[in-house]
Amino acid sequence: MSVNVGDLDAIGIDARRRIASAPDEAALEQLRVELLGKKGGLTAALRGLGRLPADQRAAAGARANSLKAEIEGLLATRAQQLQETRIGTLADREWVDVTFVPNPIRRGHLHPLTLILREVKAIFSRIGYDVALGPQVEDEFHNFEALNIPQDHPARDTMDSFYLEDGKLLLRTHTSPVQIRYMQSHTPPIRIIAPGAVYRRDATDPSHGSQFYQFEGLVVDHDIRLSDLKGTIEYFARSLFGSDRRIRISGDHFPFTEPSIGASVSCGLCDGAGCRSCKAGWLEILGAGMVHPQVLRNGGIDPQHFSGFAFGAGLDRLAMLKYNVNDLRMFLDKDVSFLRQF
Ligand code: DAH
Question: Residue 212: is it exposed, middle or buried by C-beta count within 10 angstroms (0-12/13-18/19+)?
Answer without folding.
Answer: buried
